[in-house]
Amino acid sequence: MSLTASVVDGVLVYDTTETTESGSTVTDSTGSDSTLDKEAFLQLLVTQMQYQDPLEPTSNTEYVSQFATFSELEQMQNLSDSMDMQRAANLVGEYVMINSTSESTGESTTILGKVDYVINDDGEAYLHVNGNDYSIDDLDTIIDYDYYTASLLAADFTTSLGSLPTVGNLTTAYQDVIENLRTVYDDMTTYQQSFISDDQIESLEEYEDRLAELLLVESDDDDDTESTDDTESTDDA
């Protein structure tokens, strides 16, 4: 790939030309306000020196100034990367909320978990959470352990409650699920219970009432069956 530059209407424009295997070239022309890396900046500076007006050459002072400016920007970038790594290192052992966006689908996902360790990948800091690596740029919130625990309990409670059929279609086969939901809620602290909505509690109570009705009917049916069996036994005697 080659880099050339020219002055168009007083603006420095550089062309990035890439030669393909077939011998054809692909050229990308961009204005001078584009983001450049260190190598591109140096190539542009050399190009500027080569094609400067010999009657009005750029002064050495201006070249030094350009070098100094770029050096300062590079140091600021390095300092920013270093600060990101330090910030990431301080998060080890902390519980965090990550908002990750899929590059393929664009779908955003919220992840709650503990930072096990951090990774420095080419100057960029990554947090290892729940077995996956996430850029520190995806960090949303640093959360308290009690909040983290309460959030997980609330999520599990919601999932279990949502797995039940409608109250009208409830059967005694779901007795264990309903009783377990009640046990889990009663064992929660007041703070953890605050993560469960009033609507969810009302829904649980409706399931409990319906379950009690079903168990009562089932018990009456068993009593009737036993009474019938006893009568038949007496008649046979």
Label this structure with key terms.
237 residues; alpha+beta; five-stranded antiparallel beta sheet; 6 helices; 8 strands; 49% helix; 24% strand; disordered N terminus
Radius of gyration, rounded? 35 Å
Low-confidence stretches: 1-5, 7-12, 18-34
- How helical, in percent, are the residues? 40-55%
Question: What percentage of the residues does DSSP assign to strands (E)?
Answer: 15-25%
Query: How many individual helices?
Result: 6
Mean pLDDT: 77
Could you characterize the architecture of this molecule?
- The chain is rod-shaped.
- The longest helix is centred in the last third of the chain and has 39 residues, at 198-236.
- It has 237 residues and is α+β, with helices and mostly antiparallel strands.
- It has helices spanning 38-50, 60-89, 145-162, 175-187, 190-193, 198-236, and strands at residues 2-8, 11-19, 25-30, 95-101, 108-121, 124-129, 132-135, 139-143.
- Mean pLDDT is 77; it is low at 1-5, 7-12 and 18-34.
- 49% of the residues lie in helices and 24% in strands.
- The strands form 2 sheets. It has a 5-stranded antiparallel β-sheet.
- Helix 4 (175-187) packs across helix 6.
Give a nutshell description of this structure:
With about 240 residues, the chain is an alpha+beta fold. It has helices at about 40-50, 60-90, 145-160, 175-185, 190-195, 200-235; strands at about 1-10, 10-20, 25-30, 95-100, 110-120, 125-130, 130-135, 140-145. The protein has six helices and eight strands.
Summarize the topology.
Layout: E1 2-8, E2 11-19, E3 25-30, H1 38-50, H2 60-89, E4 95-101, E5 108-121, E6 124-129, E7 132-135, E8 139-143, H3 145-162, H4 175-187, H5 190-193, H6 198-236
Antiparallel strand pairs: 1-2, 2-3, 4-5, 4-8, 5-6, 6-7
